[in-house]
Amino acid sequence: MNNLLIRNILRFLFLLLLQVVVLNNVYLGGYITPFLYVLFILMLPTDLSKVALILIAFGSGLMVDIFDNMPGFHTFSCTLVAFCRIVFADKILTRGEQTTILTPSIRTVVAQQYVIFLTLNLFIYSFAYFLLEMFSLRDFGTILISSILSTLATGILAIVYQAIFIPQKQ
Predict the structure, then answer these.
(1) CA distance 126 to 150
(2) Residues in the chain where the model's pLDDT stays below 70
């Protein structure tokens, strides 16, 4: 079996377990909920087919929804991020070139480009999730604050995770 495939499966299992056991129970200040498992979708190879990426994202969100007993919030948000990742990876990470990044991370891509890529995707995920969770634009301020703070918390955790588990250059 391919070494990259095994690493991605192990990454998924680790991040899923961390999310459902620890992070789904963290609510800092009533506004911050880290969604670190989304990092799995963002770290998939850039040459992965669009259909495979969307199906993997759908399955990842569905697994968290099942463990979290949620009615599709994570599934929708992950699928939306998969669509956005396709565009952002092409425009920000590879800049339209036909290059393949096996594991997009802070260590394998230009740091500024990766932080923009990560932040945009995490914000879209958080905004979609909190919009579905609150299901009212009357609470738009709360949705926006929760999205921004959760994006920052998840981004920091993602950078720490990558600094620990991703080798310098691949």
Answers:
(1) 7
(2) 1, 96, 98, 168-170
Reading the block at residue 104, the tokens are 């997009």
Domain 3-165 belongs to what topology?
Arp2/3 complex 21 kDa subunit ARPC3 (1.10.1760)
How much is the pLDDT for 33? 87
Q: Break the chain into its structural domains and give their ranges.
A: 3-165
**Residue 35: half-sphere exposure toward Cβ, Cα within 13 Å:** 34
Interatomic CA distance for residues 43 and 21, integer angstroms: 21
Least Cα distance to 158 among 56, 96, 72, 81 occurs for: 81
To the nearest 10°, the Cα dihedral for 167, 2, 86, 77?
Answer: -90
- Would you call 30 exposed, middle or buried from its count of C-beta atoms within 10 A (0-12, 13-18, 19+)? exposed
Chain-centre distance of CA 56, in angstroms?
Answer: 12
Q: How many residues does the chain have?
A: 170
The sign of the CA dihedral 66, 72, 74, 78 is: positive
